What does this fold into?
Amino acid sequence: MLGSGLLSGLAVTAKNLVGSFHDPARLTTVEYPEQQAKLPEAYRNFPFLVSENATDPMGTLRCVACQICEKECPPQCIYIEKSKDKKPDATGKLQLYPAIFDIDTSVCMSCQICVEVCPFEAIKMDQVFAIATTDRFDALLLKREQLAKPNAYYHTIHPTEAAEVDARLATERKAAAEKAAAAAAAKAAAPKPPAPPPAA
Amino acid sequence: MNADSILERGPLLVRDWLVSFLPEPARWLAGSLLAITAVIVAFASLFALLTLIERKVLARVQNRPGPNRVGIPLTKIRLFGLGQPLADGIKMLTKEDIVPRSADRVLHFLAPVALLAFAILTFAVIPFGRHLVPVELEAGVLYFFAAGAATELAVFMAGWASRNKYSLLAAMRALAQLISYELPLLLSVVPVVMLAGTLSTTGIVERQGGWTFGLLPQWHVFTPWGAAGFAIFFVAALAESNRSPFDLPEAESELIAGHLTEYSGFKYALFFMAEYFGMCALCGMGVTLFLGGWQAPLSFLAFIPSYIWFGAKLMTLLLAFMWVRATLPRLRIDQLTRLAWKFLVPLALVNLGVAAFWSLSADWTGAVRLTRWLIAAMLLAGPFVLLGRKLTAGLAPRIYRYAT
It folds into this structure.
């Protein structure tokens, strides 16, 4: 009969109206600044630099200033200056480090190409989005101090990916340590043979 | 409750006390001005509250909390967002008032003023309480609908003066819609006037006093012709006040904002206010004509002052308007006019016949009273079912083949 559809529609809305008051599970929205919905793990925007240690971020940057990301970056938003001296990296090998590492976030398009080309797992995608500033020049140009974030932070935002990276780095470091040990052993063993000349 | 208690007469006593400071010749004028001020202040604050309540209700229907941020400025106190209307008002006031270069400047300015003026005029004859009616008119109902019909002129003025094709289209639609629905609106009121035997709004409310068996109030909505009349009145009032599902004049999806396209700032706020005033006035008239006006629903509840009962009924009707808005999608213009001319008008005419039967059978007593009810209900249900079948023939139910 005419009007039965209207009545059933009105019943649905009435149910929602009353239900939203006594059943908080119905409310699908969160009140943003106070509560934040958990971002999906795959969400990414703007890169950050991974440092091993939160207490000394500048000293333990994984970045070795190889400048591959700077060259690959499509919008050319990365600027790197190499250091003059060398510092031991996580594996103990002496490496260069970035004296200046700037990312212009007003230019960055969050394409993740810098992350994909980095051989040192030193640059990763962040999950920040609330980065509005009152100054559109300097405040949007992030320096290496602002970009450096500890590995633990990387684990909180992309846990699966970070675990893979850590496992890969661990095997690499183990291999490097074994190689170094082998080299050291060889070095220790090597000088001996020449010392005693063959009897024959 | 006796009609002369201090609560009932309270507003009148305050008015008389205030005007007593003035010399005799100015008292009548001052009293009228006070009544006008009271009506405007009361309904302006109701408007502010309604915009918030409407947003809250719509949000809750969609399982959202709705606006809940703005409370007392400069503090962290939120008060469930009660400061929102104030913030909206300040925002509207500070916006730039743009008048298109090719617009008719005078008409463009006059349209919101005229709309608001006509909307406020309609409040004059509504009895807000036992002693609270701004103007006691013999032909109050006639006056109300005459003033209400004039709002169509203002809407067309707005559309014409904007010199914008969307505005003009909206104005055309508004005319088609408002004139179409004026007819069922008036036809649904005629039975009330017939049965009450008066055009005076206070008279109509007084006729609805008393209780059948001391329980059922003798409101018009509790009679067959009254129930049907109220339903028709409700639908037509939705259309007359441009409310969803009949908000075609400002259909955002098709016409930008319809006749409001070229209005900004405070003029837009005036339109908004006039629309809510019109809605309040029509709801108030619906309460007066069908829901017993300021009469209490049960005899032992009569100790509550009459104006509180009127306010409660008014709010109920306004909430029903919001409920309908939250539920129904907008009609197409042809569906809209078809509903008016092919369904509501014939039904209202049938209702007129039923009211005539009701009036002729007023002296039936005893068990025959039940047959009176049955005959009247059947006289209404038959045409409703038949007209509904004819209107929906070949249309329903729609089968969705691909979407699941």
About this structure: Strands of chain A lie at 47-51, 78-82, 87-88, 94-95, 98-104, 123-125, 141-142, 148-150. Residues 47-177 of chain A form a domain with the Alpha-Beta Plaits fold (CATH 3.30.70.3270). Chain A has six helices and eight strands. The two ends of chain A are 116 Å apart (CA to CA).
